[in-house]
Amino acid sequence: xxxxxxCAVLTLAVSAVIVTPLLRPKAVDNDNPDIAIYRAQLxxxxxxxxxxxxxxxxxxxxxxxxxxxxxxANKATRGPLTGAVPTRWLSVTVGVLVVALSFGxxxxxxxxxxxxxxxSARLAASEEMRANRPSQAALEAAAPTPPAVDVPDDYRAAIxxxxxxxxxxxxxxxxxxxxxxxEVELRNYAGAARAQEQVIAIKGDPxxxxxxxxxxxxxxxxxxxxxxxxxxxxxxxxxxxDAGNVAARYYLGALYNQTDRPDLAxxxxxxxxxxxxxxxxxxxxxxxxxxDAAFRxxxxxxxxxxxxxxxxxxDAASEMSAExxxxxxxxxxxxxxxxxxxxxGPAQDWARLIRAYGVLGETxxxxxxxxxxxxxxxxxxxxxxxLTNAARDAGLLE
Length: 398
Known about the structure:
This protein is mainly alpha-helical. It folds into three domains: 2-109, no CATH class; 128-297, Tetratricopeptide repeat domain (Serine Threonine Protein Phosphatase 5, Tetratricopeptide repeat, Alpha Horseshoe); 317-393. 70% of the residues lie in helices and 2% in strands. It contains 18 helices and two strands. A two-stranded antiparallel ribbon has the order 1-2. The longest helix is centred in the N-terminal third of the chain and has 22 residues, at 2-23. The protein is elongated, with a radius of gyration of 41 Å.
């Protein structure tokens, strides 16, 4: 209520400042301009007389003539008018427009009805929002249905059979791994997450971080992008084991961003953006959202430009012998494999490595990369499409 009272007082004050000059009558000065001229001539005659430029008689005659003209001008002068009549309708119109425009702009870009929130209240509201957010099951039920996948009917029948068989074999790692993969292919992310949980249970402790990351990706995408309490448990577990884990830091930042703490989201996302590979799925996702988080946090932050690789060294390849070219290709493949293993990279780089191993005839290496890449890009539909095509080109899939 105090806010609206202050707004009303300020608006009326501004309106008064604008309208008051329109209501004030404007005096019209109707003095004869000749009067000022004659008076100036009288002063000039007095100065000339003092400087002895005029004789006394001549000065008197000139003064008498100018005085006569001055009297005539005074008689012809009308008195000053009372002033122009103010346009009251214009004043009222301007005042109404100022008030209407002020409250219209606030209604458009402001937050009518939003209560005053000091910092302590905002922090408490954020904590409450985070503590009371929906469960994984509730988020999965509310998530939008993914677009249908066009696959053969016999493929769907085979996966339906696998869904029936896998629960009867709780210790069959291959069955559950295959089920998790094919559920992703069918965009059944909730089912894939449950299958991945069984994979982790079969492998036992210590669970590889890549398996936890795969499960975390599946839980988030199944929940429509929201971070559930169950997903947060995974995030905390991963950070306890690896404080610099890119995926965990991204999702923790996303959790804070979703619960009105963009300042904390910015803190987690800046680290992985500035130190991580911009082509990494989680880094790229942070880059796409960090500007909005920075704006809401009241911080000026410029997203670093992406640095792409250069291929100038390839210009001299045409001059090499076949043996040297083969050695160069092998070195490039080895370098790409090492970079992906240590730093990660986009799906295009993984696909390039799979195809390269296929061309070199190293089928087992191609298969190993294909298996690892599936775990990395399980939540990216576009990434899985790129990888699947590469695996098919390398002869890993029919």
